[in-house]
């Protein structure tokens, strides 16, 4: 049993080593490079274990990784800090201008994608002779449909797109988490036979209002308190501490109240990011706060993407489900195309939605650690290994293939307009 310090030392050392190797030799985007290096290290350990079984290298590392509660680390640790860092730098004025497009994609797009993925995944599973009930196929649709804010924000650092479209993508990724998690919770309760009132139309609406609406209101309230506290003083160490307390306190309170922690920290980050630099922070404080959250974002991103790559060592896949996992990639891509096209076709009068953005938005639908964490959080069942394999296949494809080619797609599809 290793200590938390030893585990943190191992992950940070591997992140630094793999980051250096990627920068020196592979020259891939940092986050994608770390994921690839983690996968290569996993493959090398598996091959080394086959060649030298007496060394037990594979068992030693998997024993260490087994101590990492991936779901807890992502959902109750890294996510709050990464979402706040992303929201802090988002232009709230530009987001207001794109509010219709963002809300439509985040709400309607996620629901459409969940339905399309679920139905198609179930149909393909039946065709392949794999036993996946429709309810579990819809659970997979719910956890894989929201674009991952961490992965999207990391990918956008390496791609030049029009500012309005970038805000639209960032806003969608930051807000569709709450919608996706509510859908996942409801459909998982239905699939496990524990739904009751929660799976009725009224129950779903109540849950959505409580989680999403309550999370946003909580974030606005705590964000405003933090903003007023920072405005009352001019002391950068204390103001930096206030931002850290804001993130941890808001997320912890949201969990106690049963509201959406991700949406709460996003709302708090947007409010502080919009008002504090103009009215509450000196230039010195702005530099320190910006430097801190840039550093937090980069370090946690590095560790998260490395963990995604290494986690393949401890996941248990069934060979029979690998064909379905491979089919999940085009299914999710097709569903993403339908999800971003439908709002454009239905609401052309909405102004900001553009049919010319559909190819890019489809390819930019990157999934990441949140989908893996939700899949891992499921209780053991016959469908879990199949859903987990499909989730991992989609996440790896979207981050490595779509993430690394997004710049090429942007140059050719956006320029064509």
From TrEMBL:
Location(s) in or outside the cell: Cell membrane
Assigned keywords, A-Z: Antiport, Cell membrane, Ion transport, Membrane, Sodium, Sodium transport, Transmembrane, Transmembrane helix, Transport
The protein, known as: Sodium:proton antiporter
InterPro entries: Cation/H_exchanger_CPA1, Cation/H_exchanger_TM
Keyword Isomerase attached: no
Ranges in a coiled coil: none
Family: Belongs to the monovalent cation:proton antiporter 1 (CPA1) transporter (TC 2.A.36) family.
Domain Cation/H+ exchanger transmembrane: 14-410
Membrane topology, record value: Multi-pass membrane protein
Keyword Membrane among UniProt keywords: yes
Organism: Methylobacterium oryzae
């Amino acid at each position: 049993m290793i200590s938390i310090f030893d585990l943190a030392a191992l992950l940070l050392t591997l992140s630094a080593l793999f980051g250096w190797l990627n920068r020196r030799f592979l020259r891939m985007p940092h986050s994608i490079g770390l994921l690839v290096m983690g996968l290569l290290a996993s493959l090398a350990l598996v091959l080394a274990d086959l060649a030298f079984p007496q060394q037990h290298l594979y068992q030693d590392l998997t024993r260490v990784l087994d101590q990492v509660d991936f779901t807890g680390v992502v959902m109750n640790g890294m996510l709050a800090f990464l979402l706040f860092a992303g929201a802090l730098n988002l232009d709230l004025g530009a987001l207001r201008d794109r509010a219709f497009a963002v809300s439509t994609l985040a709400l309607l797009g996620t629901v459409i994608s969940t339905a399309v993925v679920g139905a198609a995944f179930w149909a393909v599973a039946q065709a392949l002779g794999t036993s996946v009930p429709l309810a579990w196929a819809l659970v997979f649709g719910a956890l894989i449909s929201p674009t991952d804010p961490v992965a999207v924000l990391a990918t956008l650092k390496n791609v030049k797109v029009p500012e309005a479209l970038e805000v639209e993508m960032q806003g969608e990724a930051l807000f569709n988490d709450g919608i996706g998690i509510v859908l996942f919770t409801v459909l998982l309760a239905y699939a496990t036979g524990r739904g009751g009132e929660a799976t009725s139309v009224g129950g779903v609406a109540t849950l959505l209002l409580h989680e999403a609406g309550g999370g946003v209101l909580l974030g606005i309230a705590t964000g405003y308190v933090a903003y007023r506290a920072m405005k009352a003083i001019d002391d950068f160490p204390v103001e930096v501490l206030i931002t850290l307390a804001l993130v941890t306190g808001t997320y912890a309170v949201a969990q106690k109240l049963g509201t959406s922690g991700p949406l709460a920290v996003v709302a708090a980050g947007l409010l502080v990011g919009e008002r504090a630099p103009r009215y509450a922070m000196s230039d010195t404080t702005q530099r320190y706060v910006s430097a801190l959250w840039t550093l937090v974002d980069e370090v946690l991103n590095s560790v998260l993407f490395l963990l995604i790559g290494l986690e393949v060592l401890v996941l248990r896949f069934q060979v029979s489900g690998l064909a379905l996992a491979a089919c999940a990639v085009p299914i999710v891509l097709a569903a993403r195309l339908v999800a971003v096209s439908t709002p454009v076709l239905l609401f052309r009068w909405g102004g900001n939605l553009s049919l010319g953005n559909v190819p890019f938005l489809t390819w930019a639908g990157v999934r990441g650690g949140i989908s893996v964490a939700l899949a891992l959080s499921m209780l053991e069942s016959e469908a879990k290994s199949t859903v987990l394999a499909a989730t991992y296949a989609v996440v790896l494809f979207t981050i490595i293939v779509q993430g690394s080619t997004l710049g090429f797609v942007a140059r050719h599809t956006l320029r064509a307009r």
